[in-house]
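Bug: token stream looks shifted between consecutive jobs. Job 1:
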Amino acid sequence: MKKKFKKYLYMLAAATATLTSCKKDFLDIQPTHLVSDVSILADSMLFQNYVLNRYLGVKLSGNEGEGSPPGFGRAFEYAMLSSITDESMANHDDNTWLIQRGQLAPENTGMAGTIWARSYRSIREVNYALTNIDKVNMSSGNKNRLTGELKFIRAFRYHDLIRNYGGAVLVGDKVTSLTDDLQDPSLFKRSTIKESIDYAVAELDDAAQRLPLNNDNSWVLGRATKGAALALKSRLLLYAASPLYILANDPSAKPNYANGANTSDPTRWQAAAAAAKAVMDLNKYSLYQGGYRQLFLSQDNNEVIFQRLYTKNARHVPMELNNGPNGYNGWGGNVPLQNMVDAYPMSNGKLITDPTSGYDPQNPYVNRDPRFYATILFNGASYRGSTVETYTPGGKDSQEGPSNWNTSKSGYYLRKFMDDNNPIDNPWEVAGFQPWIYFRYAEILLNYAEAQNEAAGPDASVYNAINAIRSRASVNMPDLPLGLNKEQMRAAIRAERRIELAFEEHRFYDVRRWTIAEVTENIPAYGVTVTRSGNTFNYNQKVALSGRRFDPQHYWLPIPRFEIQASGGQLTQNPFY
């Protein structure tokens, strides 16, 4: 075999090392913690467990172990994807600042460095199962449903590749091994974005036909359903209709992303609207009415379409310890930026920049959108029987408080996802069980509203979708004003999406697909300085993280340089890198 080979192909092949038998040799020792492929294919329960374990691979980045699960820990351990956007910053860096500062390069990929290899490893593991499923002694019904799960997981992996890199290398059902010719040029040929999305959507259509509508006693909570497959299709087709995906369809091209605002294809928007409507027409999902904050702590409610669940043996990072204020012995991990705080409108629906909104810059947290209070901790916020104090002098959550190295650099702390029933001190045995929601019904309504507005204008169905989100219990925001034109509705939908889906890993991809990142990501990362004089607080804007920068090449992640080199230069790098 040639000595040169692609690292991701090596990882894909190595992933089966645990499933392969070797020739018996005097020195061969069978590890007790590994299961051979012979055993897996001979036992239907072992095979099903192999399939279920593939869900653990539906991750974007992070360490190989359970210390960095999806959503709650994307970087080396604790940083969230929001901290490489204008939503938040990682207080202790966690390999995110270089991305915020525009230093991302093929040789230096920061917290995003493992997406390519991890995705192809997972695809290879799925391919192994799909290739061998007919050898397993089980009913045709079980095989059909497991095949649907595997196709969904593989499509999820391709969706991660597409939204981060653009055109993917489509490997089909091939199971690569170390004995293959890993210098075969076909192994490195990148398809266009359209070809990649068409492939993933076809897989999801197939999966949706095989998967059950409901989780029940035989299909436990957390496994993919028909709704999960259709929700992923909805997201993919929304992306496919967005300006970035039209401009950058050819992976070898160098498009002018600044022209994105003028790029539109009504037929793509129609397809995206129809995909979202297909989820709505299942009549299975609804907006959770039990409180916006509680939505993210509940393991079973009608808004959740697909989620990652956690157990005592597989927890995520303790959110309360990681993100809590330093005055409560928290580490201040992912701290919201002033950029995000200023995006929340007043409770009357008006932006704070509107002189008629009632906004007072010296009393800035009064009468804001209720989702603000469920998402962000600010000076004066009630928290755990006390009050957050980010002011100086003397505020317990400022740099003058305890553990001052954990003081928020932005002047804010994260509230969303935090469970007050969990301890901050010594949380290791009782915390880290909040589910991570990949898809929920509010996203589908937002997908539909955006696509339908672009395809047909702001008709009644667009208003209904957005107003349903705004008017649900615990939010109670006023309906959008009537008479908006397409451009005004577009701005309203984007603003609603930013608020409703804050910190849920949408902003990073949204500003890119809309081709507005050269504006939003070049705005400094702002925070607030709060000073107290008697009973009066003064609020002044500051720069929380210096040097924030975004260049055109950053619309897509770079493929790591070692991947390009290992392919002998056959793998095409993204534009401008």
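Job 2, same session, no restart:
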Amino acid sequence: MSRPQDLHRPSFSFGNPFRMISPKGSYLSPKLLELLNTFEDTLAKRLSKLKPKDRKEVLGLSWMRLAMESLCETHTDIKTLISNLDLPVCDWDEKWIDVYFDNSVKLLDICNAFSSELAKLNQGHLYLQCVLHKLDSSEPKQFSGARSSLDGWRQQINSKNRRLENCFAILEKLTQTLDLPKVKNSAKGKVLMRAMYGVKAVTVFICSIFAAAFSGSAKKLIDLQVSDTYLWAEAFADVQTFVNREIRSKLSSGIATAVKELEAVDASVKKLYPIIHDGANPTGVEGLRSCVSDFGKKANELSQGLDLVAKEVDGFFQIVLTGRDALLCNLRVNSKVSNSMKVKKNVEGQAVR
């Protein structure tokens, strides 16, 4: 078996499960159909929950946390399905393994990019804390330091993240290789490939949203066309259309970021900055306190939301990493067993001679 390095992924359709999975009429047991239908039905319900009741919730950090949590659950489900299929790694086609390892590397790179962006935003929060400290006394002499911190925050937030820029290229490659290797003479293999197509489609969808939100650009936001023969296709199309349309609408209005809490802090900064400009305070002490209070509340909501999203991104990274490690371990074990069998056969052959 070749060493796993490069990767692409699967595609399939679903109407009549016998016809779509086994077009030549090969038999799919009731157990396999139940496993597949349960997986796809669960995915459909999970996607439906991702559609916000209010469009204003789109790209709020609480929604982004939910989206990443949903992605983690979907990847956990495919692990469970593989276990329930009882399809040993030694029975996996080499193409499947190559695809899996290549895709897993890409997903780890995407996770690292998102983590670096979230870290950058959290570092920016230090500037906001400094502003609050400077303005705590409402003394005009502190205004200069507060303005300097606000300038530092803007520079931090607007700085380019090269890792994030690479996400779009990675996602494009994942999209181009959405179809999985074809499966022959393996009902379990066809069920696995079909389920993995769903996992990959949802992964590309959610990661595309995160990349667009963090970069402030909807130009490379991905719209996937999924065959309506999948049980989850309608829910997928519904949430993708709703969310992508809202992101494009937000970013076309000229705002710097589509992330709701980050946009709220930016709006609060724009109100606060003129008040402390040149040491002037035309709104009076009460006006300043009210503005600072609102600013502090928005900054705190941003920080808490970022921490929650970062936790889910790290969780997704660990799921991908442990899955990759588990497969590598199985490959090593099977390789040793295979070599052991070869040695045994050679010894037996020599004994016969």
